[in-house]
Amino acid sequence: MMHYKRVFPFFLLILCFGFSACGPNAKDLNTSGIEKLKNEDYEGALEDFTKAVEKDPEFAESYLNRGFVYGNRGELQEALADFNKAIEMDSGYVEAYYNRGFIYGFFEEFDKAVADFDKVIELNPKDAEAYINRALIRSRIGDREGELADLKKAAALGDPTARNWLDDNGVEWEDAGKSSDSAENPE
């Protein structure tokens, strides 16, 4: 009986060191990266997100988070590549479209930025910030009508910045979005 007790722990050691399954998985590494990000340890977060991507190349959240770190470091091409990869893996990934829209806006690829914010709004029509950001892009391309429509919708959704801007500029917005809201949610 003693013989088996000694062999079993040795066998477990061989399994643990022989296979990467004993180390942290992609989800654990992603969680660790998020904690490091919260503590402003961007290098550590980037390292964890990269390891998570290496462990599980199909884990879209790690690409999103690594893209966020790249974006904050000013490495916008790398950020864009990671957001693209996250969207490729999950075509309904709202946060990836949102962040990619910012990158496209920075690159002055305004049509692509508007398209990404359109997608965010399609996936989450109650996201007032998406309307605000699309309004900002529309402002840059001179689409005043679209800009005002987005600001009115954001105000109707309760965004105080949009409400204040519209009020300060004397723009009526109180009824904005009510007809589409009532069609979606009849009382």
From TrEMBL:
Q: What SMART domains is this protein classified in?
A: TPR
- Alphabetical UniProt keywords: Repeat, Signal, TPR repeat
- GO biological processes: receptor-mediated virion attachment to host cell
Which domain of life does the UniProt lineage start with? Bacteria
Q: Which InterPro entries match?
A: TPR-like_helical_dom_sf, TPR_rpt, Ycf3
Region annotated Disordered, chain positions: 165-187
Pinpoint the residue ranges of every TPR repeat in the record.
Answer: 26-59, 60-93, 94-127
Kindly indicate where the leader peptide sits in this chain.
Answer: 1-21
Annotated Gene Ontology cellular components are: cell outer membrane
Identify the Pfam families for this entry.
TPR_1 (PF00515)
Q: What is this protein called?
A: TPR repeat-containing protein
